[in-house]
Structure formats: C-alpha cells, structure tokens
Input
Amino acid sequence: MLKLYNTWRGYLLILLAVLSNPLHAKETLHIAVASNFKPVLQTLVKNPALKNLNIKISAASSGVLHSQIMHGAPYDIFLSADAARPQALIKDGFAIKSSLTTYAIGLLALWQPSTGAINNKLAIANPRFSPYGQSSAHYAKNYINPPYEFVYANNITHAFQFVETGNAAKGLVALSTLKAAYKKNNDKKYLNYELVPINQYPEITQQGVIISASRHLAAAEQFMAFITQPSTAKLLQTEGYKTKEAHVSK
Amino acid sequence: MLASDVTALWLTIKLAFITAAILLVLCIPLAWKLASYKGRLKPILEALIAMPLVLPPTLMGFYLLVLFSPTHAFGQFWFWLTGTQLAFSFQGVVIGSLFYSLPFVMQPLLAGFKQINTTYNQAAVALGISPIKRFFYLTLPLLKPSIGSAFALGFAHTLGEFGLVLMIGGNIQGETQVVSIALYDHVESLNYGAAHQLSLVLLAISFACLVLLFKFNKTVINGDANRA
Output
C-alpha cells in the first residue's frame, strides 16, 4: 500500500479519485465580490435556480479584487461595489463588454444607535477609494450640521464597526449592513437610522462583469441573467439595495 | 513626496520611538524576573509573550477597538482619567503598538538575561553583592547589546505596523495615519507614483535600522555564546 503512493500508478489512482469527485459534476463558478455584497450573495446562491452550479465566493474590497484580476486571478465574475472598476477592466481587455450589468444600487443610512451623543465623531468609508465613502462625504459636507469630525474607515462595513463598537457616535453606513445585522441579532439599535434621501448624494452604482479569461462562460451568463431577473431584484430591495427595475417603475 | 506623506513618516517614527522606549521600561524588569523563574507557569507566560507573533494584527486591532469603546469599562476608565477617547487617537495607536511589538523587545532581553544569570551572577552572589547592586552594576552593563537590539527590533517592527492601526486608527492625518496606512491609501486610490516614493523611503529607513542593528549587535542576533 505504501509503495503505491510512490509509483506513477499511485498518483494516477489519486488523480482519478479526485476527478471522479461528484462535486465536479456541477459546473464551477468563481465569483469575486465586493465585501459589502457578500452576505446577500451567499443568500442568493442558495436559490434553486442555481442548483446546477457550484459557486465559490471570494470577497475583498473592490480595489483589491480589481488588481487581482489584472494579475490573472481565476475569477469568472466580478461583482464590484462601483462602476469605475468593472469599466476599467473592460477598457483594459480583462472583462467582456457586453456583460456589464448594474446589479444593485447601494443605499446610505445615517446610523446613530443611541441618542446620548458620546462624541462628535462621524464614521464614513474612506472617500479616496470607496464609492460609498465618496457619496457619504458628499452628503455629510452638504447636509449634516457641524460639529462633527470624520473618522475614515477602510470600507463601508468597517465604518459600521466603528459605530457598532461605540467608538464613533454616528456613521454613514450601508442600509444593507443594518438590515443584515438586524436580521442576525434582532437588536432594536439597528433600527435607529435615518435613510439618506437618494437625491442628496451621488448614486452608488454597483456593477458586475464577466471576466474575459473565464472558462465557464455559459454558467457565468446564467448567473448574470439570474442576478438581474425581477424576483432577484425584489429580494435585493428587501435586503437594503435599490435596483434598476425599481428605479424605472418609480 | 507629498506633505501628508512627510507627516505620516514623522508620525510613524515618533510612534516607533515611543513604543520601543515604553516597551524597554516595561520589559527589562519583566524579562529579568522571567529569565530566572522556573515555576510551572513559565511556558504559559512565555507563550503569552509570544502570542502577538502569531496572532493576526487585525484580530488584536478588533479587540482593542472593542476595549477602547466608551461603552466598555476600560474605555470609560480612560475617558474618566484623561477626558479623551482612545480609538482614532495617537495614544490608542501607541497602546496597540505595545502589544504588536512586545515579543520583538522581549525576546532579545530574555536571551540576554538567560546568558547573564549563570556564571557572572553566581560569582557576584558568592561575593555577597546585593541583588539591586548586581542588577545595576553587573546585569545592566552586560545586557547593553541586548537592550540595543531590543530597542532596534521594537522600533523597526513598529515602523511596518499596519493591520492593527487600520482597525483602530480611522486614518486621521497627523494622528493615526502612519506610513503603512498612507501607502495603502495611495494604492487603493490607484495613486501608484506616490506609493512607490513612500515605499522607497520606508525601505531605506528600515534597511538602515537593520544595518545598524547587525553592525553593533551581531552577537545577539546571531546568538553567539562567546561574548562579553
């Protein structure tokens, strides 16, 4: 038996065992997703409409994923938190132009868990590289009364953590994060927010693309069709996003 | 280089200096005790000290963020004491760095004390010299290279601190925006030119630190036994 592992026949047997794994009967789809959308995506992939796909999810900030794709990361689909990065990938030939889709529009909420202000710190995502941050900074500068002092978080979820841990009195966070947190913990403090009117900040358009190097194009197209279909859009709205369809009908 | 980068650089050097100095003061008596301690808790204590070597800095950062919170007892105590908040402040980053660089200051000191505590110390004990006198006139002078290494390693390691400051810092210029955060900021905002420049400066400083370390404290780093 031991000798078997040292011979080429042994390796062949192991290889056969791996290849015949039932998981590979399904087509594998590797999705790179901006962290803020990951919880929703995890719910979405459980949908029976996608049961023929074996979906792997890699979550990071859009900037990190963008640079990974430029360096040959083996993703099939990129769901970014902005519009600039997918479009840049198309321009540089890393993504398929016709696949460009607006799958969600991010919504901002001003969250202040307790009324007793502990400080004048306002947590926002860093406007230098986060699209949520750019919209947050725009809104804060024009519509929030001073005094407040910005603290810059790495991304919109990190801004949420600054407020959640009580280190910042209030913060501009994603509505979707608040909804997800409420669903998970059922704590009333996640309801103490004001939805920021969408005409008071630049729209946070989250776009997705299929990566040119993908070897699972049919599966990728199936997923892109799924993520924009009306039933998915309805679910996204309950999870704290706006969608294109809703935009048209209103 | 951008003015904000110069600020970040000075802030980082200040942070590294303060952290290494505080750690030396805290660690010298601790290492002195621990080097001669042979009780059952020794492996546990040594493991505790080495923990920051293996823990992800973001994890330490997250728990510090929780600890610093004004809703937490420690955060409240600090506020009562100083009237300021620890998260997003330079003091907060210093406290984080103390955890982050602890093993780097502690290990050279422990190694130094372990060597000294043998023959020289026994001779001094035989001559009837008091423990306090032994510490100041025998141990500390013999320990000089170890102290130098401990300081330099603590300093150099703090220069590159990232995940922890990212978690508790809030990226505030002149307060919590250290070099690594400024670099991250440049890369994420696709400002590669500024990132390259800043990296080069950081590289040069770190290299100079380590060259000085190896030049003056070869024995400690390489673990040569025949010194002094």
About this structure: Confidence is low (pLDDT under 50) at residues 246-250 of chain A. The CA atoms of residues 48 and 169 of chain A lie 42 Å apart. Chain A is about 40% helix and 20% strand. The longest strand of chain A covers residues 27-34.
